[in-house]
Specification:
By secondary structure, the chain is α/β, with parallel strands linked by helices. The protein folds into 3 domains: about 5-160, 3-Layer(aba) Sandwich (Rossmann fold); about 170-340, Rossmann fold; about 345-385 and about 425-535, Dehydroquinate synthase-like - alpha domain (Dehydroquinate synthase-like, alpha domain). It is about 45% helix and about 20% strand. It is built from 20 helices and 17 strands. It has a 7-stranded mixed beta sheet with strand order 6-7-14-11-10-8-9, with helices on both faces. It has a 5-stranded parallel beta sheet with strand order 2-3-1-4-5. Strands 15-16-17 form a 3-stranded antiparallel beta sheet, covered by helices on one side. Strand 6 and strand 7 (about 180-185) form a beta hairpin. The termini are far apart.
Length: about 525
Amino acid sequence: MTHIYLYGPPGSGKSTVGKLLAERLTLPFIDIDSVIESQAGKKIAHIFEQDGEGRFRELESAALRTVAIEPTAVIALGGGALLRPENRHCAEQSGVVLCFTADFETLQARVRRAPGQRPLVKDEGASEQVESPLKKLLEARKAHYLSFSMQLPISEIPVERTADNAQMVLGRYRVSGMGNPYNVYVGDGLMDKTGELFVEAGLGHKCVIVGDSNTAPLYSQRVAKALQESGVDCKLVTIPAGESHKTIATVGLLWKAFMDAGIERGDTVVALGGGVTGDLTGFAAATWLRGVRWVSMPTSLLAMCDSGLGGKTGADLPEGKNLIGAFHPPALVIADTASLATLPVREIRCGLAESIKHAIIADPELLLSLPQFAFCKTEADANTCAHLQGAPWLAQFVARSMAVKIRVICEDPFEKGVRAALNLGHTVGHGIEVATDFELLHGEAIAIGTVIEGEIAVALGLAKTTLPQTLAALFQSVGLPVKIPAGIDCNAILQAITHDKKRAGGIVRFALPIAIGKVQTNVEVKDQVLRDKITC
């Protein structure tokens, strides 16, 4: 993948954030000023004093050309490095530019804390009678900095949070803890870069692309073309869409397709679709030749934010969801948010259930984006979301929603502890799915399950009495159901819960919501409490 260039005014923290970002993405970090000093044999301040700014800019351009052809890295640029058109062209052709922005007061405070280190503003604060050189510089460069499409507002928050925000804007993560680490890419139009990312990850020269009857006609040829242009031989296979086909019989079809395509241990399979396609393809990959690599290409909001990450793969039995499965992480995740514009509104709602769940677990600020999806409350289920095409905020919303799960699975990859929080709403929700014979979609069942689990938390004295109403209002704001539909057999729900895969020692343990931003795991719930709260 291309370089990540960090750019912006003096004092915006490019080097500090860049080092942490490079560490998280396991990439080299390069400070362009250090390269200039190494090549010139003198400090930046001395270059300005002895040779002038013109000479410095020549050295800066030469340094940029040098690092541009190096292996992928996080590169911190000087505050005027891209003023020259040829420099900007070089950076944008070899990477992406993330431009830091901040108000004058924040930048001035930072510059004053390191006096003399930045030649163009070295006299900042020296005299109240002299016009601020920093203010003059910012005014002169304002239009230039704003001309970059990828912007990161900076404020006086911990550097870890700034790095979090940078990853959300960039749509870049690296997941570790379960086998080999893998990269996650989020953005608009990434399907066309599949071949580039596939080859960079070293995933071989042969693959099978698995799509379902909904996604294959839309995307499989486009993905195959991108792979073939990068020298990868592709075969296509289509499976039936829908949870009712998430069975061992469908896994058998995939095994047969892998055999017919000659998939060997060094080859890769690609899951192109929603949660069902990802779970089935990942499980088939885990069990083919005792494990081959697979790429997750989620095309639904639910799969992007949840099931397409983490490597929990599986299939259903009539008695319950995901009773057969394996931990088998993908080798690469590519989430092209452009695919969301082709989804029916009902599918977007289902994905929002997982995003709201992530907000409840660890990131309440995610809820600030819910008004962007208010249309989901009034639009018909089957209407597509064409107006999401090119929405500038969408990729960052998805990346932020992903971030919660990524942090959790890196900390607890095999669900021994904190990862159980991700099961919020799922214990009851899975029971509802089974009892309705999957007529309720996953996200709809999870919304209902989360509200009921909030009621259970209240009954156990773990949460305020107002929490279930608060949870219900969040889900209802995007048109999700919050009550078990009429005519459902509650005993069937309870029976499905007793077969839940999270059962241990004969007891099903819950992840319960305690407040917005807080979940308690490993909670034992007595049968009578369940029966009291699961009413039909």
